[in-house]
């Protein structure tokens, strides 16, 4: 299959016409001249009315360009490239080097057409919302130097990688019967959650000395896009493949799935995090998903080169899932993560470490607990702490094992506690368990030990799993539909595990872990419940009104709210990881002045002092929505150079909803003032995933 790129910038109308949602609507207009009436040969298949409304809004926006009298006016042209690829054969190997944004026409074949290149100008939207950031992206595989406004720090030299949504909607053709005749119709498969969309990887090269930033990007799951188009849906061959998406596949397809056939490098979506370092592997870039997949990318052109599972590195790393947020210990040189081996009513969390001296890795310990959604974990010099929230798999994990979406197979039970499983890194075993009130979380902030033998664990917590349901594609594209109307309340909460060594003595003296337990929770906390040496036998009704009676004997973690204002995607200076610290940066929710968008999306970057329990400074701009603000510390100039904890910069890709464009923002991490920004050649969708920087020292 031959591929070529079509150069040029299309007009705002053309950009909207080629949008995977809008194009079908416009096709209908061509044949009927009236939206919503006419032939059924061109159908727009949407998951719900909200997405139809989104498509209609985009259509109206395109029409307003033709009709200046419209209330919704796009005054200038879109910066999007119009790129297509052809698919004349079904052989997957023909797709390995595909570089262009996939699309399909109603005839079932795709061809190239050259168009003149108009002048690149900004697009102005008169009624902007963050919904502009949840559409398909076009990649930019060729490196381009960005126009820089401001001055980069002279010391900033290196690469910054981000990963996030690239493809939400995939059009496909199907046959329908109309008046006894088979005719072609166009439908759209839509990923239903922010966490499910197929990835776009971005690379930024900083050179502070020359004050330049170079950019390129790539869609890294193009083969999977073609498979979805061919099969009219997506049924992952493993659990944790989807967060909340209707697969549009029958149960027979799931039953006949084959997990033994090796995936192609661009046929497995890995969009949860990105990193440049896996011990034992040099010069590569790695993307991870919520399953146990690791996608290897070429760090220069961003092409996928290999896909593997953790058990291919070491057969002992068994399991369906793994954390996309591994922890690195700079002192020991260990890269630590876990895999989840899901069993009947319980799961084995296998914690393992990799290092340059041991690239095949070793198992540190295995914890048996409920099958829960665990996005991240805590690490200190001596301990690993697994927080298992009462958001657990239903039907003994059967639905989860049958590859249903996580939100369809898990449920939150506020009558059960949050459990903290403490693993000794030196002893390589589970040594204690603590409990706390029911809550839910995605991200840990930091964890550290104190001189009294306790552990502090700081987590961005939510009261329950509401936030996970609010981040569906439909809610994000239609802010008015979000329920509750505002993002779920979240705060930074510290959980203090006191006297860990003493509790470990109680843990083991109360009996060894039962090998015949009925449930995972009973297995891993059985030593407390069976004899409860040193533990109260009666439930304190006042302090345990939310706690299941079986957990009353487990020691309670002390809880303290460090910051009662919203903050997500937390960042700390990596030099204070596993240590007491002061500052945390992250995304927050500020006023917008618009009831339709107020409190519905993170729209500012804040700096908080956790010792003072307050936000010190923030950055925001009207109609702008940042993705993760990554902290890059200033490197040391020598042994006498004292570097403050907040001495560095924050880097974030920001959506400008009013201009339907994106820019790279560089902030002074101390003052939170903008020192530099660079406009990107196309809009980059908003991301909830982790980014990574590799800066020369």
TrEMBL record:
Domain of life: Eukaryota
Compositional bias per record (Polar residues), positions renumbered to this chain: 32-50, 57-70
CC cofactor note: Binds 1 Fe(2+) ion per subunit.
Binding site for Fe cation: 375, 443
UniProt keywords, alphabetically: Iron, Metal-binding, Oxidoreductase
Molecular function in Gene Ontology: carotenoid dioxygenase activity; metal ion binding
GO biological process, one term: carotene catabolic process
Cofactor(s) required, per the database record: Fe(2+)
Spans annotated as Disordered: 1-118
Cited PANTHER family: BETA-CAROTENE DIOXYGENASE (PTHR10543), CAROTENOID ISOMEROOXYGENASE (PTHR10543:SF24)
Protein name, entry field: Carotenoid oxygenase
